[in-house]
Amino acid sequence: MTAAEDLAKQLAHHARALKAPRIGEAAKRLGDQARDAGWSHEEYLVAVLDREVSARDASGARLRIRAAGFGATKTIEDFVFDHQPALKRDTIAHLATGLGVKAVVRPGCASCSPPPPNGSPDCTTPKPPAACPTMLARLRRYGILIIDEVGYIPFEQDAANLFFQLVSSRYEHASLILTSNLPFAR
Prior knowledge:
Layout: H1 3-17, H2 22-37, H3 41-68, H4 96-104, H5 131-140, E1 144-147, H6 157-170, E2 175-178
Parallel strand pairs: 1-2
C-alpha cells in the first residue's frame, strides 16, 4: 500500500468516526487545488470543513422542512405574482408557507410544527376532554405553528373554544401564522 493510499484510508476512517462523510470527498477534490494554489495547511483544512458544514446545513434544512410537514415546499422567492395581478410585490411579506420554510431552514430551529390534520389543531373531531389539554400542550411547544386555511371547515362551539385557547396561549410567547380564505370583519 502506498503512502497516499494509506492516508486516504485513514482519512476515510476518521470521516466515518466523526460522522462527517463528505470530508473524504472534499479532501480528495480540494487536494490538488490546494497544492496548485499554494494554500497553507490551515486554508486547506478550512476549505474542507467548509464543504462539510455547508452540506450539513443543507441536509439539516431539508430534514427540518420535511419534519415541518408542509404540504408543498413553497418559498417566498417562488411566489408567482403574475397569478395575482392585484397584489403588489412590495406589500407581500407574510406568505405563511414561505415564512415557515424560511424559518425551518435556519440551523437551530428545532421545533417547528407539522400542520395538524385538515389545517386545524384537530379540534373538529370528537375527543375525550382529557385529551384536549395534552394536545394543546404539545402544540404550545412548537416554536412556530402554522395553521393554514382557518375556516375552511366550520368550527363547532367546543372546537372554537379550543382553538381560541391555543391562539391565546401562544400570544406574545411563540410564533403563530394563520391563513384563511375568509374575509375578516373590520
